[in-house]
Amino acid sequence: MIHFFRKSMILYCINNLKGKKMWKFAFGLTLVSFVISGCSTSSANYEMLQTGSQKKVNTIKTTAASIEYRILPQDRLQVVLYKDPNQESIGGSGELGESMSNKGILVNAAGYITLPLIGKVKVAGLTQTQAADKITRMYKKYLNTPSVYLEVLNKKIFVLGEVKKPGVIPLDKEKMTLFEALAHAGDVTDYGQKNHISVVSNIPGRGMVMRTVDLTDFDHMKYADLMLRPNDIVYVRPDSWKQFKVASDEFTSPFETITKIAAPFVTLKYLGD
Which CATH number fits domain 49-66+155-241: 3.30.2420.10, 3.10.560.10, 3.40.640.10, 3.40.630.30? Predict the structure, then answer.
């Protein structure tokens, strides 16, 4: 389309304009065409999470089990042990509920944590409830009526793109809705596409899955589309005008710099004349 535009304008110049007038007009049109070309290239690289597949992504079925978080390597866990108060304290504090570490326990790359008395425990791939039950069973070999509370401390959601406060949102529960996440991020900007919000999830057994949510169509809105899991990425895509604006600013900024540098010399030349 751009090449056709250039060719048509050049033919028009040759057929209808002559001399300096033609060359000035042709130069102006060439500059405009380069601006359009540069903007189209830059805008194509401005938007994140682009994909060559235009297929509609199927909605991920949401159940209590699918929402519940599974522990990953490099997670940080809070592990609290409740035991018979008549037994000696493991950590020496003598409290009813003893936290194994104030900063949490880091799950290593192999998916293990190390706890007093019972040693290494593999927790990666388990839910918080499953991991707590497993640790409780291991402590029963050494303690009377032990009970373990376990929580992942670093659950979060990432909100990027056309929102007023992009960043990381700490998650202190198993799930969050898309509306809650956008509220934490200060809402969508005027340039954001409310009908084209991308959510990227890492689904066990399926890998990275991206779905598109339309917040403008209430009649077809589904609860499953609005549910976010820990570590989900929410990306509010920019509209075409924002992409063009950013691309055009990138293209014209060198000319603005040249103009600012040349301005004093032009002024001196004018005053000298």
Answer: 3.10.560.10
